[in-house]
Amino acid sequence: MKKSELLRRMKKSKFFVIGLVIAVFVTLAAFTSPLFVVHDPIQSDLRKRLISPEFLANGINGYILGTDALGQDIFTRLVTGCRISLLIAAAGVLIPALIGTALGAIAGFFGGTIDNVIMRICDIQLSIPTMVLAITVMAIFGNSVPNLLLVLAIVGWTSYTRVVRGSVMGIRNSEFIQASRVLGASNARILITQVLPCVLTPLIILMSQQIGFVILTEANLSFLGMGVPLPNPSLGSMIADGREYIATAPWTVVVPGVTLMIIVLAFNFLGDGVRDILDPKNKD
């Protein structure tokens, strides 16, 4: 696709523009937060518990979004939690993408017994509810970020495997693949130089669509106390901690809840926009 056509599609896709603007804003706010936050995200002060939002009354030095039941600044914990969630989402998309792409390419290229074994494992994986599997793994191995990434890899690789396998099966008998075999190229070289570049488009689309799912999965696990270990902030754990005070201090739940909704919605919009832009069937 030409650069001019790509830019035209980007500008035309409302989903992509909206999702990109919000995602860039959230990412910049999260990763530049150490430059402007003044409160400690894990330091508690019971003398300042459940202070209502002051917005801009006292500037950045005040409690813009209020405090929680432990006297911790919600704004500071929010931006810190977003940074942690985005880092986990990046790794939680990249790791299963690498695993799934490798297995899908092998299954689709070689077929036969290898394909049957990989796809039957994939079917077994898909038959188990995602959250049940995630909770089981976290309960067995314990609560930590590496184990959380392990969970995300286990629950996420199947989608990439199925997509890449289907794409590879569609091109494995193409003339350029046969020509490479005639010229003596090894299977590994053909997979890396000929096959993988052809599956990059559906792979990029899927990865962009999975970011919101990974963020939501991490938040769900943190809400249950099986995600980001305390006292590190997470949107899910912030919602869980504030639910007891929803009647008397609703900001402790509403702020992280709305933030989570906006982030997931933004990345879903971004994923849909990337699909519309890169889909070769889209002629608009």
TrEMBL record:
Locations listed in the record: Cell membrane
Residues spanning the signal sequence: none
PROSITE patterns in alphabetical order: ABC_TM1
Segments passing through the bilayer: 15-37, 84-110, 131-157, 188-206, 251-271
Domain of life, per lineage: Bacteria
SUPFAM superfamilies assigned to the protein according to its UniProt record, in alphabetical order: MetI-like (SSF161098)
Gene Ontology CC annotations of this record: plasma membrane
UniProt keyword Phosphoprotein, yes or no: no
ABC transmembrane type-1 domain location: 82-271
Stored Pfam families: BPD_transp_1, OppC_N
Biological process terms in GO annotation: transmembrane transport
Family: Belongs to the binding-protein-dependent transport system permease family.
Protein name: Peptide/nickel transport system permease protein
Taxonomic source organism: Lacrimispora xylanisolvens
